[in-house]
């Protein structure tokens, strides 16, 4: 099986169907790239495109769709609820299979250079691809949005990592980064007391001394009368699913409560589930090549 | 992802390299078929070929390699330790992904008809494809081997399911079947007392009142001084890995012994491990399409 990288560019257009279609068509026409999802939101005026493939093909699809967005979207006229700095607002690369985070960071830098040189758009590197700690978090990079950055881009602390020290007249700026796959994971408790879910969420989330790569909150599933620990696993290679599950199980037991079920919302990489099987079956030296389908 | 079937034909030639190569070449030249393994044994004078692909392509590769074996192998001159009835001795189809056992049985019947009509070889259906219970077990079909069956084929109870009621003059007869994927799975115990492994093996194996699709024995890993429950899971969809693991854990605890590790020997279908993750994480309605790589 080939190396696999996922890419999830966000474009600042969620209303004009023809513009969205033209941008997505640039992804579709790259051989070896598989389009997984297109999600447009009119009030955000934003479209999130998800595709996957080998690194070089994914980079090409990202560049082409970014170039098309620069032609079709005018940030001077853009309005929408979601924060944004450019026509192609963010482009994250995500390792999926046989690819390291370092390779994704290198890919992000190659793309950033290409966007800067060929499209004359300033580019900011963020998350794992950030060149300084203060640009690690996307909200910091996007501070002031398009309008604010346009005024501040000449300040030393806001100059781009690649490209001109001024906004592109219509396409603005773009943030390019690399990050882990985010898994949306919910654990349902055998109780209708949401305060228990909230307490457990606090024990596992990074912000309160819990696991480094875990965001969590307690919510109530009104239709089922079930309290749920709702979790974002922002790096399943650092904090795996089974560890969070076992900790929630142990914390719930302290209140005499059981886990009645769990669910993954949307997609996840196969490795995240193989890690679960590996843990519970106490595998000695399991090799992913032993998975039949991985030999195809 | 396409439907996937595995096929593991056994050919009665394990010595002449050129004949083995010519037979395997018939598998290789079918587009959409991936050759996984070729294992020849000189004393058995037998070669086991493993390949995988979409059902129609796999059937074609099976037929072509069977036709080539009929040309190159003369059962009148064949000697070897392993029981056999023909040049292509057995052809089992194994469901791997998005394919039911019924589909594999249908595929086996199509292939059997083709072998009977085009190659004039008598064919016996076995295991899940057996047309009568007495032919379910391969040893019963192969009773008396090539020489014995040659004499008894005219008897009503030994007539083939497809093809002529006489052996092919050089290629003999062929058994075609469908079965589940066999997983070789070992569980290592935190003890050097092999009698405990033997007792546990007896509790889980079908022959002693245990799980229907489990064969097991207790063995000693001399180099590690560790007792092991060595298991063949002959249908992981009927008796899953996690159930066997949990039962061994519980039975071992009765002797104050822990499981220190487990291992899969060779390949296994991804579904077998997804079932493990599904069980331990208590998934509610997990869909295999949520696995990212399965969308490619």
UniProtKB/TrEMBL annotation, chains A, B:
Q: Tell where it localizes.
A: Cytoplasm
Give me the Gene Ontology terms describing cellular component.
cytoplasm
Name the enzyme's class.
Answer: transferase
Bilayer-crossing regions: none
Q: Write down the SMART domains for this protein, in alphabetical order.
A: FTCD, FTCD_N
Question: Which InterPro entries does this one have?
Answer: Formiminotransferase_C (IPR013802), Formiminotransferase_C_sf (IPR037070), Formiminotransferase_cat (IPR004227), Formiminotransferase_N (IPR012886), Formiminotransferase_N_sf (IPR037064), FormiminoTrfase_cat_dom_sf (IPR022384), FTCD (IPR051623)
Q: Pathway, according to UniProt?
A: Amino-acid degradation; L-histidine degradation into L-glutamate; L-glutamate from N-formimidoyl-L-glutamate (transferase route): step 1/1
Name the domain of life. Bacteria
Please state what the protein is called: glutamate formimidoyltransferase
Protein source organism: Acetonema longum DSM 6540
Source species taxonomy: Bacteria, Bacillati, Bacillota, Negativicutes, Acetonemataceae
């Amino acid at each position: 099986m080939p190396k696999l990288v996922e890419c999830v560019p966000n474009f600042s257009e969620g209303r004009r169907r023809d513009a969205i279609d033209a941008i997505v068509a640039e992804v579709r026409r790259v051989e070896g790239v598989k389009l997984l999802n297109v999600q447009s939101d009119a009030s955000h005026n934003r479209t999130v495109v998800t595709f996957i493939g080998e690194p070089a093909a994914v980079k090409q699809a990202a560049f082409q769709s970014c170039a098309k967005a620069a032609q079709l979207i005018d940030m001077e006229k853009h309005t929408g609820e979601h924060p944004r700095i450019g026509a192609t607002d963010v482009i994250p690369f995500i390792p999926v299979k046989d690819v390291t985070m370092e390779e994704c960071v290198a890919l992000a830098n190659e793309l950033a250079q290409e966007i800067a040189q060929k499209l004359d758009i300033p580019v900011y590197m963020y998350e794992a691809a950030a060149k300084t700690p203060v640009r690690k978090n996307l909200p910091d990079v996007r501070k002031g949005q398009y309008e604010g950055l346009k005024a501040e881009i000449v300040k030393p602390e806001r100059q781009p990592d690649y490209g001109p020290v001024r906004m592109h007249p219509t396409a603005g700026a773009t943030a390019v980064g690399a990050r882990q796959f985010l898994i949306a994971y919910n654990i349902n408790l055998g109780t209708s007391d949401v305060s228990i879910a909230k307490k457990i969420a606090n024990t596992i989330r990074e912000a309160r001394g819990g696991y480094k790569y875990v965001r969590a909150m307690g919510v109530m599933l009104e239709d089922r009368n079930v309290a749920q620990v709702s979790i974002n696993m922002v790096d399943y290679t650092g904090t795996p699913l089974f560890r969070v599950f076992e900790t929630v199980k142990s914390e719930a037991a302290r209140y005499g409560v059981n886990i009645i079920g769990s669910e993954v919302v949307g997609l996840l990489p196969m490795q995240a589930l193989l890690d679960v099987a590996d843990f519970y079956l106490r595998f000695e030296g399991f090799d992913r090549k032993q998975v039949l389908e991985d030999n195809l």
